[in-house]
Amino acid sequence: MAAAAPAFGIGVDGDDRHGHHRWLVVVMRLRMMGLLWAVLLLALPARAELLLTPYMSLAAGFSWQRLPDNNPAAGSDGRTTVNSETLYVNGGIEWLPGLSTGVMARLWGDRNVNTNSDVLQFDGISIGWDVTLRLPLELAGLSRGSGPYWRYGQHCWAAAAAGIVNPWSDDDCSPIQTWGINFPLPDSPDLVIFAEYARTDFLDIESRAVIAGVQARF
Q1: What is the CATH number for 26?
Q2: Which of 25, 45, 70, 194 would suit a FRET pair with 36, their CA atoms being 20 to 30 Å apart?
Q3: How much is the mean pLDDT over the chain?
């Protein structure tokens, strides 16, 4: 029996007893996202005076999730690993060389899980905020925005998994950490390319990702 879609539009074919609650959560989180973007937009006029640097990032890659599974074929730790594509978009402001804050959105899979399927699937979507600390190599004469970085944030997500003994779907908020490096592009001082590794958990599900993308600095 088809049920109401969980938060953020994750399509799940199966029983969902929390549909009404999930939609309330969606509204609250979208309001939070709008507030964060409003803060960013209000800060933009001050850029000329404070030398702030707005930026936008877009990236894609792959991720893997380790799902608790009672299947005898699961690993010795009782977990099954599933792979999925992931997309990432981020926008924010660098307040000082190497210190920035932003808002982000992430997507895993194709947002359409059939809980009756025997095929391993994981899909999810999230929004959140982050703080980035970067080694500002531009102070040593390199292109602005380049250097290794560490990012910490919180994201609120909705996700679903199928192809395991007990199909799963839920929504919550959790921390996310990222380690990466920005590389300057020759003859493009306002663009950098980057590669990063991210880790987070969806309750009992461990999730890791490797992505690469481009960042535009304004």
Answers
A1: 2.40.160.20
A2: 194
A3: 79
